[in-house]
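User: Here's a chain of 267 residues. Predict its fold as C-alpha cells.
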Amino acid sequence: MSTFVSLGLESLQKRFAEIDLILSYASEKENTSELYSTLCRSAQVLLIAHFEGAVKQFVRDVIDDFNQSNYEFKDSPNALKYTFCTFFIKENNDLIRNKLLDTFNSVPVKYTAEAFLFNNHSDNNRNPNSNVLNNILQRFGVSGFLSQIENSDLDIAFEDSKSNQVAIRDKIKFYLIENVKSYPYTVSLELFNIKYDRNADKRKLRKKSIWEEFLDEVMIKRHTIAHGNSLESQCSHTEIERSKLKIEILIYAYVLLLCKFSSPSLN
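Assistant: Prediction complete.
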C-alpha cells in the first residue's frame, strides 16, 4: 500500500504540470504583449498557490502516515510530542504540558495536522514565506530549515545552468519517490550533502540564507499581482520557469526533512 507522502508526490506533479501548461502557452504568445503578460501573471500567482498547497498537504501526509502505522504516540519523536501537547494550552506551562504528555503516552491518541500547521492558530491562512516555512519545520524539531539546506548540493538551483538545476531536481525527486514508498521512510540527508547541525548557533541560523532571500522575493512578486498593485508582469516566462525549478527543489527538500524528522526511529 502506498504511503500518503508517496501519493502526495504524485499529486505534486499535477500541480506543476498546470503551471507548465500556462508557461508553454505563454512562450507561444511572447509577441502578443497583453495576452503574454496575463499568462505570466497567472503562472506567477499559481506557482505560489500550489507551493502553499503542497506545504500544507505534505504535513497532513506525514501525520496520516504515522497515524495509520503500527506506531503509537509514545514512539514518536520528542519534538512531535512537544508540539502536539503545546497546541492544547494557551500559555507556555510546562506543568500542564507534562501532564498532557503523560496522558497521551498512555492512551491511543492520534495526531492532528493542525497542531503542526497552525500552532496556537497563529499561522492560519498565512502565505508560506520563509518564516512560516521555518516555523512549520521547527514544530517537527528542525531548526532553521532554510539555513540548514544552504551550502548543500541543492544550492545548484542558483547556478545559471538550467540543465544542472533540472538534474538536481530530478535527483531529489526520484530519491524521494523510491524512499517514501513504505513507512517508516528510508530517507537520508547525506546523499545531498545536507549537513544538518542540531546545535547550530542561533545567530547563524537567523542570518538570511539564499533560499530565504529567494522565497521572500517570489512572495513579494506574488503579492504585487494578487493584491492588484500592478497590472504588468514582473517576470518573463523563462524567469518563472527558473523560479518554478527552485520552488520544486525547495518543496522536495522540505519533504525530505519532514520525512526524516517525523520518523519514529529518531527516538
